Amino acid sequence: MMLFAYNLKSLRDRPKATGGALLSLAIAVFVYACTHMIVAHLSSQRTSAGSEHSIIVLSRGASAEATSRLKESDVRALDGYTALSAIEDGARGAAELVVSLRVPHARSRSAETVIVRGVTTRSFAVRSVTASSGRMLELGRDEVTIGRLARDRLERAGILQNGRLRLIAGRELPVAGEHATANQALETEVWMDLQAARAFFADASATSSYTAILREGQSFDAFVAEIAADARLDVGIERERDHYGQKTRGLALLLEGLAVLVAIVLLLAAVFGAATTMFALVRARQREVGTLKALGFQRKEILRSFLLETMVLALIGFVLGLSAASLMRYVDVAAFSGAGGEVVALVFSPTWRVAAGSLGVALVLGLLSGYVPALVASRVSPKESVRG
């Protein structure tokens, strides 16, 4: 207990050295936590994107809705399949138009990817959509709603200003409100009436995708086989969850690999920085260590006390780093433009697993950076301390 009190007093008496060690540890924890919070969010999206009974139909060979074009005959044929749940007026799915635009920033030479989805009343029948602010889209009017994960990004780019959205030069559309869905991939989009979208983009019959819900008890594989045998259709079918989850899978793997690389670099940097600081502390306290040995403290006791000191620093660094990382949830949502012109939201999602991993990183860093200096300190003899 006496040694522990001595260690705490030493940390307080050397604020610069203590601060340097804490900064190294806190930065390592912060970067680790931020990277893994994004990975955690992307992983959760792979399981929550869309209903397990929902399917999405694209033209054969298309990997994204923005690059898919269905024929009107495809939509009519799909509406005739009784394996799909009926929604309204004999229709069984929602035909939608999806366009990927590169809209110039208002205050720079760069451009922002904006995904526009043309929807109908059937779109709201096959998925749960609410207004997170303002009101829902009124079909038949030249207006839009913006996904709740898109607003900040579009405002920063100057594309959304004073409640109006600029998609093409000289043409602005009023914003009715923000839409929110269980599938966050759709919350990065701009929605407008399907016919208005077709007129806006000068394509009177364009359709990108067809989204529907399989009837209760209907096998997905059996439905896919039935569609494959239909000579009228040349389309590809995916579960909606798999389709949107695929957007994030590659990015999640990339970030996980990046997280490992960053962790290794930070591990080395933090260990070096903290170890350098601890060596400096040991040299500065050589006389004190010799005095402790002269008072009868054993080598193992001194070793444990210095290791305990680094563990205290590691825990404080963990708290500081994780606290700073948790504040990232309030930072404007970033976005990644993927293949097919799609936009993936990058959201910082704190989880207990991320917190536990961050604690593990902090303790490992503390142990690695503190063991050798602690070992050196434990070997100081009273005679050496007097000469020092």
List the helices and strands and how they pair.
Layout: H1 2-13, H2 15-48, E1 54-59, H3 72-79, E2 93-104, E3 111-119, H4 121-125, E4 129-134, E5 144-147, H5 151-156, E6 160-161, E7 164-168, E8 171-181, E9 190-193, H6 194-200, E10 209-213, H7 220-228, E11 235-239, H8 240-284, H9 286-294, H10 299-326, E12 334-337, E13 343-346, H11 352-378, H12 382-387
Parallel strand pairs: 3-9, 5-8
Antiparallel strand pairs: 1-10, 1-11, 2-3, 2-10, 4-8, 5-9, 6-7, 7-8, 12-13
Helix pairs in contact: 1-10, 2-8, 2-10, 2-11, 8-11, 10-11
Measured as a percent range, the helix fraction is 40-55%
Low-confidence stretches: none
- Taking the alpha carbons of the first and last residues, their distance comes to 27 Å
The coarse silhouette is elongated
Alpha plus pi helix count: 12
CA-based gyration radius = 29 Å
Overall structural domain count? 2
Structural class: alpha+beta
Say how many strands there are.
13
